[in-house]
Amino acid sequence: MVTKNSADVVIVGTGVVGVVIAEQLLDAGHSVLMIEAGPRVTRAEVVENWRNAPLGVKGDTSVAYPSRPWAPHPMGNEKPEDAYLQLSGPDSYAQTFIRYAGGSTWHWAGTSWRLTPEDMRLKSLYGVGRDWAIDYDTLESYYVRTENKLGICGPSDRGLQWPQTGARSAPYPMPALPFSPGETRFTEIAKSLGYNNIPVAQARNSGMPYDGRPACCGNNNCVPVCPVAAKYDAETALHRLEKKGATLLVDSVVYKVETNAQNKIEAVSYYDQHKESHRITGKLFVLACNGLENPKLLLMSKDDRNPNGVANSSDQVGRNMMDHPQLTLTVTTKEPFWSGVGPVVNSGIMETSQGSFRSEHAGAYFRYNNFARNRFVTFAALKKGLVGKALDEEIRRMTACTADVVAAHEVLPDPNNRLTLSDKTDWLGLPKPHIHYDVGEYTRRSAEVYSLPIGKRIAEAMGATDVKISPKFNQSKHIMGGTIMGNEASNSVVDVDCRSHDHENLFIPGGGAMASTACGNSTITMVALAIKSADAIVEQMRGA
Amino acid sequence: MTRQPKDLNGTLMMSRRGILLGGATLFAGSIAASLCPTLALAAVDAGTQGQFMKLSNLLIQHQLNPAVGARIVDMASGEYKNLAQMLDAIIAIAEKKNAAQVEDFFADIPDGELKDFAHWVISAWYSGCSSEKRNAAVFTYEEALTFRTTSDVVTIPSYGLSGPNLWTRPNVPLSAPMPRF
Ligand SMILES: Cc1cc2nc3c(=O)[nH]c(=O)nc-3n(C[C@H](O)[C@H](O)[C@H](O)COP(=O)(O)OP(=O)(O)OC[C@H]3O[C@@H](n4cnc5c(N)ncnc54)[C@H](O)[C@@H]3O)c2cc1C
Ligand code: SF4
Q: Of these residues, A30, A73, A478, A501, which one is catalytic?
């Protein structure tokens, strides 16, 4: 039975990880209560926020999602001293994510690369990082279920699918989206260098409606919001969950996970937006607050039985924070590429992420960003002081003949890349997260000897007259590692089902569990792990 | 059906925006207002508005929407104390040259306040904003002229211009004619 204060299963967070688990449990007949820190808003409101934002900040993915005082998330306009994320270390871990009902898939691009079998065996194959506690074959059926659940389209030609190693037991539910003229040209250029620029598997409806959502019609606005919900985002599932009986509490920030004498989870407590505290009990608890908020919450919940924090007997909670550090090459070309036709990311060179070189340095994945470029070039053209026809022609030229090619790298799990609780507090008085981060030699070396040299060759083949390379690594917003998976309770936080080693009725699925990053965007893997967790939860509840 | 770029100003698109605006909540409204603090003022007389559109049409040889112009001049009246004189001065320079287009007189505008203002007016129409900054006032998004220069090819993000899987087409050469707008 579900009440406002109790349910069979209590899920904290309504992002994609939370909602896929919720749906499976509801379908299995369990009562589900979801607690969400942020507000619930309409798509129309987000789209209007975006359209009303000044042209110069339209590249800021958070601009359409002002954070609520009680549920802060990183915003582009923060001063470092007021910032929600407190950062230190040689590299920045300035992630963005959204604390709204529906979570960060509101503004994801939908790119969905599976891991390869090799990505999950870095230690045994290349002597670096960690091996996963499960293998690709175990994950494969969960990938298929994820592709069907989210509506991930992709090519049917085996030669164009990713990964090339490892089996694929079922086709994508929809065909690949077609390439724009710029992507077609980029693909030809990559081919001339011996690289295959293949269609991205993406959570976007290709040529047909799917899951009650319309076909993608090329609005080129997937980041920061698809105006028609042709791209999957978790918000699109919330009404369905409610129809199936889920209770959803919004504007409710969970700040404590409570254990009982058996060291099982007994309850969670949350603050509403009036700073009133409430307590929710349940039989089983799922933390789905994302790879950064989950470790923060666990550390905040320390008690006498768990002096390092809940689920943290290994001292690994908050360690091994990972992402895909990326470098962008902004290329000016003679011939037009015309980014901004079709979806914002539609192809990628993945094969450069694999190889025996991984014993020495990281691999990299290259993508041609297909964002319409007016927002990036208009002010630069205006600053040239041109008027009349010359101004029109310059804006048109710069829009057509500039392009971003991004190299996204893998990083290794490093316990020193660590999230801790800052002594700075937020509006509710809760500690802000502090993250110390260094991408590490493995990744830096890749940029020096591997990824940037390849990127420069690609730029040259594109006919670049100018190439600007980002001076430092930027974040990909794929938050991984902070509640890492493993077989040993001594050096990992969760088991192969994302169940806490320390608390049998606590599941912590999602990016935090990932033991390696590979190079491709990782939400598909987070969701595959969530579905695996849901199977285990259904099994466990049957026994309960 | 494939909707072609010439539909950009079409009724379908405008009505969708109308619906969205109608559905926008108080909260979205307050964001817009806080981003555009000066838009609340509407203190510009019809004469100044007329002069502003006259100047804008001298600086920019495209169709300009007077509703957008009204928002720009509203902001300008708060920012530039001597707005009316500047409008008159630049218009006089153009008239002296019998200018039919901006190229005919722009070089004659003296550097300094007048030239800077002329650039600001052009920038406002092309970017739809008062500046590049985060706190810029927004006069328009989808009618910003930057998007008109590429409207035969590039999507105005959030306003699709083709249809499901219909964006494959030959690459348009730079030598293709500029869209008429
Ligand atoms: C701009 C951008 C583009 C991206 N593009 C891609 C892409 O193309 N491909 C890809 O694979 N990934 C992409 N990502 C990453 C992707 O968005 C995340 O991996 C994904 O959303 C993670 O899902 P999640 O459910 O774990 O967390 P989230 O989606 O972040 O959801 C977590 C939920 O928990 C809630 N919550 C947090 N703390 C609390 C609390 N204390 N109490 C209650 N509720 C709480 C939040 O409000 C939120 O609703 C992108 C991210 C960004 C920012
Ligand atoms: S291209 Fe447009 S319709 Fe397609 S997913 Fe992106 S925003 Fe949605």
A: A478
